[in-house]
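Good day; I would like, with your permission, to put a structural problem before you. What I wish to show you is a protein chain and, alongside it, a tokenised description of its three-dimensional fold. Thank you for your consideration; the sequence and its tokens are set out here:
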Amino acid sequence: MTTTLRPSSARWRAWEPVVWLVAFALPALVPSHSLIVSEIAIVALFAISLDLVLGYAGIVSLGHAAFFGFGAYSAALFAKHLSPDPLLGLAVGTGAALLLGLLCAATIIRGNDLTRLMVTLGTSLILWELANRLDGLTGGADGLQGVVMGPVLGRFEFDLYGQTAAWYSLAVLFALFVFARQLVHSPFGATLKAVRDNRLRAMAIGIPVTQRLVVVYTVAAGMAGAAGSLLAQTTGFASLEVFGIERSADVLLMLVIGGVGWLYGGIAGAIVFKLLHDVIADITPQYWTFWIGLFLVVLMLVGRDRLLKPWTRWSRKGATR
């Protein structure tokens, strides 16, 4: 018996270029909010990297921050001791996370979801402790300070308002988003979804399941490392917090808010989460987690579609009458 897996269409919809044009215009339109635009772009890239393994491959991870943090420290150390060039540092941070992802991929191809949760979490904790102990190299609990970046492409200096950082982060996000989009809409992406839906059936029709999981896990690790590199470069600092379980939990919440298995879900979730965090933290800095939790409970009870598109509920009721 043979089964044909057809890739989904990768054609751009009419609204997508508009979204990206607005995003790139924001640092010029609202320069005072350039830093938050840069932060959103970075966490959106991090969320997209997790969506590749969770939404498209069905791999549950609680330690995806391991790759984010490894990329951040690699880029920061490279800038401090070798070269301040941002693009070279980005390549180093991404490459380091790719190698780490390839090494860690062997730990996720066996066992069940609970095993993967523990292994991925353990990897993040190990790297956190290493960064804490190797204080002569990483700065330990004080973090790696004194990271000074050169101009992007030798022309665009990082400014205090964060405009260059915002455009730089958005450009990297867009480039890797296009790459991820092509990946998930390719025949490779179709086989990933088959593995996610039923691994045994995928193996039965001849899909190399282990190879697919290793490749997507490694690619996702590299993208997470790129996000971490951007954070270190745009802030000039790398701390133990980049390895924290809170970082992994936050990116999971972004995917819950935006939706898994849809690349724009990571971007939408990052926007909503960061804006909620900043707005609520300004109003009630001690209890912002309560309101985030309440929002998630309502989202789960009501449903994303009914919460964001309440008119669809009434239209469906009218159609059934």
